[in-house]
What does this fold into?
Amino acid sequence: MADSRRAQVPIEQRRRELTETAVTVMARDGAWALTTRALAKEAGVPHGSVHYAFKDELMRSVLRVDLTHLSDLVQTQQDRPVHGPDDVTAAVAELFAAYADSVLADPMTEIAYFELSLMAARDEQLRALAAQSHQEYRRIIVTLLSSLAERAGLRWDADVVLVAEQAMTLMFGAALGWFELRDDALFRAVLDDAAGMVGRRLV
It folds into this structure.
């Protein structure tokens, strides 16, 4: 009876539920542990239903959670007034602060992303997927930085892609530091200082 009720769950809802479970498995046990069978066992559903919901999209679905959230954070900055470098720095600081909020509220999703990045160093298939995810992260940040500089009537001191890479390195580096120390105040202070470093690249 329970399995019959599960079968009636709409496919998009099943994907959302299984993705949340996949994040938990991947963050807790590592990327290598994230198999369809492990996910089915964790979720308490038949193995076939995981294949039906995801097929080969399981890992991509985990990454999409993080990318969608970052895209939403960037979107909140697109309509703010920008008149000069201080406004650009403030916008970057707000983005970094929102990123900190998201990590503190849901560290498992970020851990899963970092886990994939580490495992990609040894697995060619994962490497391609991680590279695609990184490029999408960078595209989102490039869009924001380009828009901010244009609205401020300024430009970056290097190609905006390089500035975006620096911003991402600072963001993710601060998050890794938080995972080790669990010092919320330091995490936020580091990101606030990082926003100033990015802002100073405006000319």
Q: What stands out?
A: The CA atoms of residues 19 and 62 lie 6 Å apart. The first helix runs from residue 2 to 7. DSSP finds ten helices and no strands in the chain.
